[in-house]
Amino acid sequence: MVKLVFCLRRASHLSRSDFHRYWREVHGAIAARIPGLRRYVQCHVRPPAYRDGRQPSYDGVAEVWFDSTAAMRESATTPEYRAVRADEPNFIDTTHPFPFIITRDFPVL
User: Fold this and answer.
1) Dihedral (C-alpha) 9, 95, 103, 81: value to the nearest 10 degrees?
2) Using one digit for the tens of pLDDT, what is the confidence trace for 34-86?
3) What DSSP string runs through 6-66?
4) Of 70, 87, 69, nearest to 33 (Cα)?
5) Are strands 100-103 and 2-8 parallel, antiparallel or unpaired?
6) Are 60 and 23 in contact (CB under 8 A)?
7) Backbone CA torsion sign across 109, 70, 94, 23
8) Residue ranges of the domains in the chain?
9) Which residue of 31, 40, 43, 96 has the fewest C-beta atoms within 10 A of its own C-beta?
10) What CATH class is the domain 2-103?
């Protein structure tokens, strides 16, 4: 399978707990509807990373899997994908491009 990995920063109008709640409870349900999506994992930064006023570079990482790059590209033409993109400004800092990679897993252990 092909995996996309996105590094996300929360929108400035949200607290970190509101960001994580929205991502988990609202956006996750929207993203799960994308046709061809085989797996979707949200990796939320743990609260201790914010201790003493620290701000991690990113607030989380999203990982999404598709059968192939062709399936991934095809999913990007659907209304469900457009709904995901339309929802992003509700919780993600979209003033800066967020880094992503397209990769394959090579399990070692």
Assistant:
1) 100
2) 999 999 999 999 999 999 989 999 999 999 999 999 999 999 999 999 999 99
3) EEE-B-TTS-HHHHHHHIIIIIHHHHTTSTT--EEEEEEPPGGGGGGG---S-SEEEEEEE
4) 87
5) antiparallel
6) yes
7) negative
8) 2-103
9) 96
10) alpha beta
